[in-house]
Design brief:
single chain, 245 residues, mainly alpha, 11 helices, globular
């Protein structure tokens, strides 16, 4: 199918369904779940591009929610992310595939640690925190097709209500992902085959996303934070186990 092995497509469909649910619940996490699993079945660069296209497609379904609920903090973070995405893409095309696979898994693990580990009295002012979030969002988006881990610590540790935090992350995804995909195309990294796979996976993503949105309306703010942190941890650990096994 589309030049991919049937086993790879089957793995991708299962990952897409789970990733869609996570994204609907948390506001991010589609690529965090999809890319680490998918890059074990196909070449890492192809997996990253499939993740980016999938993020953009699902983002189009949330334009109304974004306009209604997003916080203004998304704008400066997005501007910085756009500036640093080429740096991450350069790292992706430069590193050997095995190193790329390992670092993609570590991206998820690092975000999980930043979200759940108590920082005690260590705090960071809002503007520097936004700047770091913008840098890592862009770098991770270009390198791993996973901008979510770059911004998740800022929004999960911040004071925004879950609805606003979730919509703000969706805003950044919607703008950043097509730009990243275009950069991929200009550099000759992937193309129609990866786009076709993302389109084939989209129905599974939509179904998972619908269930995730329904679950979001039934959880408290604390439960939402715990659930999103667990998503980051489970995706990272699963990818590392499969990679090292």
């Amino acid at each position: 199918m589309l030049g991919f092995e049937i086993e790879a497509v089957a793995v991708a469909l299962g990952a897409a369904l789970a990733a869609g649910f996570v994204r609907g619940l948390a506001g991010f996490g589609l690529s965090v779940v999809l890319v680490p699993v998918l890059q074990l079945a196909i070449e890492p660069r192809a997996a990253v591009l499939v993740g980016l296209v999938s993020l953009f497609l699902i983002g189009l379904t949330d334009v109304g929610r974004i306009r209604r609920d997003a916080d203004r903090s998304a704008l400066p973070i997005l501007a910085l992310a756009l500036a640093f995405t080429p740096v991450g893409l350069w790292a992706l095309v430069t590193l050997p595939a095995d190193w790329a696979r390992l670092l993609i898994a570590l991206v998820s693990l690092g975000a999980f640690v930043l979200v759940v580990v108590p920082l005690g009295r260590v705090t960071l002012a809002r503007h520097p925190a936004m700047a770091l979030s913008g840098f890592f969002t862009g770098f991770f988006g270009g390198f791993a097709g996973m901008p979510g881990p770059g911004m998740a610590p800022f929004y999960l540790r911040g004071r925004l209500e879950p609805r606003a935090a979730r919509a703000s992350m969706m805003t950044i995804f919607l703008v950043l992902t097509p730009v990243s995909a275009i950069l991929f195309a200009l550099l000759g990294v992937g193309g129609l085959r990866e786009t076709g796979l993302a389109l084939a996976l989209f129905p599974a993503v939509i179904v998972g996303d619908w269930f995730g949105h329904r679950a979001f309306g039934r959880v408290s703010a604390a439960q939402w934070q715990v659930a999103t942190a667990l998503v980051l941890g489970a995706a990272a650990v699963g990818a590392l186990i499969k990679l090292l096994g």
